Amino acid sequence: MLQPPTLPTNYTVKHGHIKTSTGKTIRSEEMIVNMGPQHPSTHGVLRLEIVVDGEIIVDCIPHIGYLHRCFEKHCEHMTNYQQVIPYADRMDYCSAMTNEWAFALAAERLLKIEVPERVEYIRVIMAELQRIASHLIAVGTYGIDSGAFTPFLYTFIDREKILDLFEMTCGARLLYNYIWIGGLSHDLPPRFIDQAKEFVTYFRPRIKMLNDLLTYNEIFVKRTANVGVLPKEVAINYAVSGPQLRGSGVNWDLRRDDPYGVYHKLQWEPQIGKGEMGTVGDCWDRHIVRMREMEQSLNIIEQSLAVLPEGNVQAALPKRIRPEKDAEVYVRTEASRGELGYYIVSDGTASPFRVKARGPAFVNLSVLPEIARGSMIADLVLTAGSIDIVLGEVDR
Amino acid sequence: MEFIQTIFANELFVAVLLSIIPLIFIIVYALVVLYTEMKVAAHIQDRVAYMRTGWHGVLQPIADMLKLLQKEDIIPAHADKLLFRMAPFIAFVGTYAAYAVLPFSSIFIGSNINLGAFFLVAVGSLVVVGILMAGWASNNKWSLFGGVRSAAQMISYEIPTALAIIIAVMITGSLNLQEVTKFQDGGIGNWVIFGGPLPWNQKLMVMPFTIITFFIMFVASIAEVNRTPFDLPEAESELVQGFNTEYSGMRFAMFYLSEYANLFTVSAVVVALFLGGWSSPFGSLMSGPVWGIFWFVAKAYIFVFIQIWVRWTLPRLRVDQLMYVSWKVLTPWLFFCLLAVGLILVI
Amino acid sequence: MKKAMTPQEIQDILKTKFGDAIIEAKLDAPQPWIRIAPDKTKEICFFLRDTDTIQFDYLSCLSGMDYNNGTLGVVYHLASMVHRHKIVLKTQCTKETLHIQSVSAVWGTANWHEREAFDLYGIVFDEHPDLRRLLLPDDWEGHPLRKDYKVQEFYHGMKVPY
Q: Nearest-5° angle of CA B274, CA B275, CA B281?
């Protein structure tokens, strides 16, 4: 069996000496603590091994893999490309529609299928509703991390309305199996458009209420401003994407810069962090980017509902999906957490040869040791919360 | 109290009786405040809690107590057994001893000592010892963090508390809490927060400072009790329950009880010093020995309610921001108020 | 000045600078790719990142591959935020010579991606600062995503095959 090269994985704890006024020296030591796989304000099963000097963090080593479910190995044993969609759902379970869409998009590019325009608009509506739902979870749990227990329940009330819309369409609240290769599994039910319009009018003032309650609260600002600052160059070097990248001031949104779907036909703006309350790229910036993105998603949904064309919801697909031999494609989409990419390689048979899922949370989490050094333990909780990870996506 | 002493000649018996009455009060009050906290939290969060046991869940606190009483008593293997067992009781003793000097009514005060306010501040430090013991004895790095942070926080916030007490005492002229309350008797105008029973020109000048002092004391007392926004040692998302983590069953219940009892204590001290204690705000209307108990408990309870309200609204402060608030904001303001009130009273 | 380069231009520049390290290319595929030598990846990637006209500053994805003919490989998907062009790089190594030069010095994100490739395929990345297993337990045997992987019978006394 192959042995890895021996490299410093065990951190050697540094000892220091503090001189007291009487001339004696007291031995001081750094402490290794575990923010274990089970967290109270859980973002999933993530283990952070922290080396602390008092309250200051000297190093932070994330250990992941507690939720590894072998997605990529499963894909190689599917008998059909369509069978992968339920597995893709379960990777980022807080944002399932975007997962499905990214995979369906990759398969469609591989097979060179065009989907009807109605399908494109419905996919956009579903993805944006899903983005709002996912950001609501992020914002709610971020409130709990900082000690405000109430916004969590308010965001979940709003999220229930979105889940009602999803349940009406495809029967499921969390894991949908809705966006299929070549189209959708069901068409929209008759009441969907009216109920979605109601939701848009209902939710807009709620964003303002959440901002008043949490975002602009003095204590929250003090906790999150100038904390966990992610500089622009580090962000790009670490391939960070999504609200975390935009919070650092980089104007990059894959919906506009690598277009897919019908985003180019709609009016919306990517939201950038400007360092309003502290430095550019601090936790507050990431938070406000998420809040503002929810509003932009509402705009997108409104416009799509107004121009939704009629048509089929399934493209003409061959009976067995068999791409050409050695065809490969890498498709990247803007999921709720950032750049979700699927790299599919086909070998001419009906099952994929290799599927690699590039999860945004996986990459966003790798930057945590860089930005956590030098901060305090309480800041680490908020920094990790502002990255908005979902362990299903980190571990796949 | 003298009335009771005339009935029972035995002094020891009287002392025991007087110390049991606040204990009964604490237990009954704990059930009530538990219910209040859950319901207030639920309504702030747009949900209802506790609807099934009894009408709207009024019997639920009893169910909670029964549950805690019958839980398994787990002591971690490598914990320091003696300290682990002692810690909840020491924390409770620190809180409970303060009830000796709270003036519940004009005829009832546990111990009418001349240094009531001083005794309060001194005995309140015992809670810190209890919490430190709990954090250390749990043999858990996170509990240790919680315990040490809590100790730092409570010690820091005793300074503003003590200074605020000094200001109130300066106006009323006595450390004896019963005297302080008697001084404020006679209606809402006589309360220390509005300047106390001074001539109107002094009163007008003193009033802004006493109002500021009152607010600062209230904030410092929330910090003393380890409640949000100052609950970093306790309910931090990284320390499951801070120093409480390894405690289960009745020991946990003791910490909980002492936290709620402390809530009432600090509210009661604020009320006794600044808001007239057991005296009725309407002067002679609705006043008397028994009405005194009602007014005292009701006023203290309003502040308990406000503390619960604040807990479910605000996020929590980080440890260094806590310290900053105490040392660099509250204390300088109080020194300024102290100086101002002192000057006004002298001139 | 921002200008997107075509894959042909990128390949020409690379060939003039690195010569033999550029093994083959397929530029008419929907996503054109260039195969490079496994021991020169770091140099080539530094060049691609730091040259002003190319500036591939974003490593989108780094995937391990098992080509089922005795070779393993790595596929790099690069993008440039400045010039808005993309390219795919590939390297290959056999199952005996498992060494590919690491690019974690070029892009910080490659650190975790390469750890994952090592974990699931067994490819050893030279000069990687911390090469150990990422997703699987540290004492797992074998590299699961290889085509010839046989799952181990017992892991710490627990029966593994379902």
A: 150
